[in-house]
Amino acid sequence: MTSAPLSIVIPTLNAMPRLIGCLSALVEGLSAGLVRDVTIVDAGSSDTTRDLALDMGCRVVECPPEARGRGHQLAMGAQHCQGEWLLFLHADSLLQAGWIEAIEAHIAQAPNKAGYFVMSFDDDSSGARRTAFWANWRALRFGLPYGDQGLLMLRSHYDAIGGYRALPLMEDVDLVRKIGKHHLRRLPAMVITSADKYRQGGWWRTSIRNMALLMTYFLGVQPARFKDWYR
């Protein structure tokens, strides 16, 4: 019998209760024979994140204090995966109906490319719709999907380009730039992600800040120098 091809990596830090929905959406992938394993890389949660992950059959990897940060966590998670394909997903992102079929079709039709999902927010405000539109446009036009859109790729491809670097910020942009726009493909399925940071910081203010961070990174400033701006 052929092993399920897909390993999923999710970095966490006090991810409850969002993680419940994220993991619940993955269950049908297990029963469909697509998902082989799910690895949670935790950065020292003080809530019940790790207990939930273990209860739901995930592998839990503890990230040491000196190696915390999403870039570290994603890189660590990939090291523990056994699948031929990797899907990197955020704990507050919820895959929607059709994600299994979208991944299966991508694996069959475009194995030389990485894939990402269409993004929406768990918010129906005009600010949410506007921000999601521009995020999806940016990903399609410039080949710059962010981590909350998920990233699917062959393990061999991931290894060949060096995988995630241990960056405190911009680890997602760093990796998709190494992949290149012409080796990225939008998947015909949606992921809904949390809008909490936008609701707390304001849609315009948070969007402008994120754009400023991206431009700062493109100008060659190391993420360690501006990571505190993201908080």
TrEMBL record:
<keyword id="KW-0328">Glycosyltransferase</keyword>
<keyword id="KW-0808">Transferase</keyword>
<dbReference type="InterPro" id="IPR029044">
    <property type="entry name" value="Nucleotide-diphossugar_trans"/>
</dbReference>
<dbReference type="InterPro" id="IPR026461">
    <property type="entry name" value="Trfase_2_rSAM/seldom_assoc"/>
</dbReference>
<keyword id="KW-1003">Cell membrane</keyword>
<protein>
    <submittedName>
        <fullName>Glycosyl transferase</fullName>
    </submittedName>
</protein>
<keyword id="KW-0472">Membrane</keyword>
<dbReference type="Pfam" id="PF00535">
    <property type="entry name" value="Glycos_transf_2"/>
</dbReference>
<feature type="domain" description="Glycosyltransferase 2-like">
    <location>
        <begin position="7"/>
        <end position="131"/>
    </location>
</feature>
<dbReference type="GO" id="GO:0016740">
    <property type="term" value="F:transferase activity"/>
</dbReference>
<dbReference type="InterPro" id="IPR001173">
    <property type="entry name" value="Glyco_trans_2-like"/>
</dbReference>
